[in-house]
Amino acid sequence: MAHLILEGKRLLVTGVLTKGSIAYSVAERAQQRGADIVLTGFGRTRRMTERAAARLPDPPDVLELDVNNPEDFDALVTELYQRWGGLDGALHAIAFAPGDALGGNFMSAPAESAEQAFRTSAYSFKALAEAVAPLMKHGGSLVGMDFDASVAWPVYDWMGVAKAALESVSRYLARDLGDRNVRVNLISAGPVETPAAQGIPGFEALSGLWGKQAPLNWNSADPAPVADAVLFLLSDLSRAITGEILHVDGGFHAMGAPLRP
């Protein structure tokens, strides 16, 4: 029987696109551990989110949220307040960069594409926090999905820059929301075979680095270790942790050179 570390928690989960999304695994395991959840989707992909939601143990509602549309945040907050009267936690699992900002196009990417990557992948964490923090009257937890931005990666290009911005955004949110007892943390995950990863040219080569360097065996087909770390940060077990980047990558980030030839 799963430990009900999230019993009674009201959680908002963004980023569920298919059953292969990390956020789907978070939603599934959060329900198994006692949480009430709602998902978000938007536009043409919302139907995909709804199909994924129908496969969860207790199919949740899917609310409209385009993080680049301020009006959607207003409607989301109204719905959450009417539904629950408050909120205990939220997962930000949203990132996007146009194709001309990835795959080796760092030098040629236009400013508009870099700006779109920043706004959707980094600024949106602040926008989400600004919207839902007032619902966390007794404190809460905001968790964002990261990919180590301390180094430059092959093919990641302007998404890597956006993730660096996300890491900084999370620290400033931790600073500004701490007096409300709202925690803000990131999960820096190893590569996982998700729908989002499929949109990164050369992802297989990036993922292949983990087989050489991670001291723990890393299974890029298994999102469960990442999801469980998210649940920890959403739970009261992490009540004194904020402004943190928790690496869930098999130890890859701590190694200075490949372990295997």
Report on the architecture of this protein:
By secondary structure, the protein is an alpha/beta fold. It has a single domain (10-254), classed as Rossmann fold. Helices cover 39% and strands 14% of the residues. The chain contains 8 helices and 7 strands. The protein has a 7-stranded parallel beta sheet, with helices on both faces. α4 links the parallel β4 (89-92) and β5 (140-146). The model has no long low-confidence stretch (mean pLDDT 94).
What is the compact description of this entry?
By secondary structure, the chain is of the alpha/beta class. Helix content is 39%, strand content 14%.
Major beta sheet summary: 7 strands, parallel
Please give the CATH architecture: 3-Layer(aba) Sandwich
CATH fourth-tier homologous superfamily: NAD(P)-binding Rossmann-like Domain
Query: Overall pLDDT, averaged?
Result: 94
- The CATH topology turns out to be Rossmann fold
Tell me how many strands there are: 7
Helix content range of the residues, please?
Answer: 25-40%
Query: What CATH first level would be assigned?
Result: Alpha Beta
Oligomeric status of the shown chains?
single chain
Strand order of the largest sheet: 3-2-1-4-5-6-7
* Whole-number total of structural domains: 1
Radius of gyration: 18 Å
Distance between the termini: 41 Å
Q: By helix and strand content, what is the structural category?
A: alpha/beta
Beta percentage is 5-15%
Indicate the low-confidence ranges by residue numbers: none
**Order of SSEs, N→C?**
EHEHEHEHEHEHHHE
Task: List the total number of helices.
Answer: 8
* Shape estimate: globular
